[in-house]
Automatic annotation (TrEMBL):
<protein>
    <submittedName>
        <fullName>CRAL-TRIO domain-containing protein C23B6.04c</fullName>
    </submittedName>
</protein>
<feature type="region of interest" description="Disordered">
    <location>
        <begin position="332"/>
        <end position="352"/>
    </location>
</feature>
<feature type="region of interest" description="Disordered">
    <location>
        <begin position="400"/>
        <end position="460"/>
    </location>
</feature>
<feature type="domain" description="CRAL-TRIO">
    <location>
        <begin position="157"/>
        <end position="321"/>
    </location>
</feature>
<dbReference type="InterPro" id="IPR001251">
    <property type="entry name" value="CRAL-TRIO_dom"/>
</dbReference>
<dbReference type="Pfam" id="PF00650">
    <property type="entry name" value="CRAL_TRIO"/>
</dbReference>
<dbReference type="InterPro" id="IPR036865">
    <property type="entry name" value="CRAL-TRIO_dom_sf"/>
</dbReference>
<dbReference type="InterPro" id="IPR052578">
    <property type="entry name" value="PI_Transfer_CRAL-TRIO"/>
</dbReference>
Length: 481
């Protein structure tokens, strides 16, 4: 059985498969829903995880005070090109905002609607398509179709319990920028899966892990991608599952655009190791940054603290024997000599800091204030989490948890029912806004997403050529995963 195929161009152009906004929906009285400048669709739930199976350190407490530096935001190359790594709740360049506007307009002209999660990834698709809005939109539609067909029901940790226990794919550790480390042990693929060519089961475990990352581990503007460590231990060259690895690489690149920061190849067969110098000569600088052949421990521990890595992967952590809930450790995460032991009293459960939709994030809105663009969707228990971590509680969190003012006993009923003018009714700009009555608060992109397309808008796409000539992290040959 094969893995569900990536939708073809023909399928994404068919009326049956495209996520289109129909004339009936436009003419109806139902509120129009937009996010990130796109009309949005309802989205199927992708995973179900029982509360006791959510790893205590899915989000480390260090994220509360973490401020990404330039190296965490961009990958920069010697030829002057760069590639953005953080996309949500973070300021975009003028060129990026212009490219995003053209993509939003193309979606409006083609009457396309997308799930919120894909609308928030719009700049990732632009990066992958080198700034081409038509190509980016086609990829976004294809991802929408794949997610709709693949997640007809959520992937459940209960139903997948036996597969998750194999230790084939699991999160264990973080790099110095708090990006999680996903370990893939090729030798642990069951023999029966090889015989029956059930590589779709391998991909299913991988997809579950990626969906777990996006639901419980990603923090917009801070942690948006992962590292993948591929272990080839105990495999000869003939035993290396090339087909599986190719499918893993293809799936990660197509279904999770821009979510992989780096691949590390560990424990290569000796004869394969001798070919590494030759391979490095033919790889581009961009490929060398994304693909690391681990020939000595320093090749990986310069980025990932040895205490976060198992011994056979170049670290000092004992071999992991239980793989789910994911065996994530608390910090520190910065590589050091000698290695620093884990915190004595780490704070678990920091993933409860955000609401479920808060892990998705939002794209920069040029009409909103910077602090509103950067603001995270905090949950009701966020204040307690900040206090447990010994950090001051942000003002926007206090605003959500401040108790209401006592009502005056002599006030009229009408006055008692009036909203408190000192409390912001919506302290956080939500990712979704709807209906005509809220137009004054919408961005230009959201306003345009609510309108019917006109023929003159297509001519604006000619501006893409002008944008292509600019040097930014979408263009000049950079971008992609």
């Amino acid at each position: 059985m094969g893995f569900p195929p990536w939708p073809s161009s023909a399928s994404t152009n068919s009326l049956a498969s495209r996520a289109q906004v129909t004339q009936a929906s436009v003419d109806s009285d139902a509120p129009a829903v937009t996010a990130n400048g796109f009309r949005v669709l309802a989205e199927n739930s992708s995973i179900e995880v029982e509360e006791q199976n959510v790893a205590p350190f899915s989000v480390p407490q260090e994220v509360l005070s973490f401020q990404p530096d330039d190296q965490a935001v961009f990958a920069r190359f010697m030829n002057g090109d760069c590639e953005r790594k953080l996309h949500c709740n973070i300021e975009l360049t003028a060129d990026e905002l212009e490219a995003l506007r053209l993509l939003q307009e193309e979606a409006r002209v083609q009457r396309v609607a997308l799930p919120v999660s894909i609308s928030a990834s719009a700049t990732r698709y632009l990066s992958h398509s080198h700034g081409d809005p038509k190509k980016a939109l086609k990829m976004m539609e294809a991802t929408t179709e794949w997610r709709s067909s693949y997640f007809t029901r959520p992937l459940s940790d209960v139903n997948m319990a036996e597969d998750l226990k194999l230790g084939l794919v699991y999160f264990a550790g973080r790099d110095k920028a708090l990006r999680p480390v996903l370990v893939f042990r090729a030798s642990r693929i069951p023999a029966a899966w090889h015989r029956e060519r059930r590589y779709d089961l391998v991909i299913r475990v991988l997809v579950f892990s990626m969906e777990y990352f996006m639901r419980y581990m990603a923090v917009p503007g801070k942690i948006e991608s992962i590292n993948v460590v591929i272990d080839l231990k105990d495999l000869t060259i003939s035993q290396i599952p090339i087909g599986v690895l190719r499918e893993v690489h293809r799936s990660m690149g197509m279904y999770y655009v821009g979510r992989i920061f780096r691949f590390y190849i560990c424990n290569m067969p000796r004869i394969l190791g001798t070919l590494v110098p030759l391979a490095k000569k033919v790889l581009t600088e961009r490929q060398r940054q994304k693909l690391v052949f681990v020939c000595k421990p320093e090749d990986i521990t310069r980025d990932i603290a040895s205490g976060q890595l198992e011994e056979d992967l170049g670290g000092e952590r004992q071999q992991i024997k239980e793989f789910f809930p994911y065996p994530l450790l608390p910090g520190p995460f910065e590589p050091s000599e000698p290695p620093v032991r884990s915190r004595k009293d780490p704070v678990p459960g920091v993933h409860k800091l955000l609401t479920p939709d808060g892990f998705t994030g939002r794209l920069w809105n040029r009409r909103a204030k910077p602090e509103e663009n950067r603001r995270l969707n905090y949950s009701e228990c966020a204040a307690d989490i900040f206090r447990k971590c010994g950090l001051p509680v942000p003002a926007e969190v206090l605003a959500r948890t401040r108790p209401p003012e006592p009502e005056s006993q002599t006030g009229s009923n009408e006055k008692a029912n009036e909203p408190d003018s000192n409390v912001d009714e919506d302290p956080q700009p939500e990712a979704i806004v709807s209906d005509e009555s809220t137009k004054d608060s919408l961005s230009n992109a959201d306003l345009e997403a609510l309108e019917l397309p006109n023929t003159h808008h297509r001519s604006k796409l000619e501006e893409v050529e002008a944008v292509h000539r600019r040097r930014c992290c979408f263009f000049s040959g950079c971008g992609g995963s």
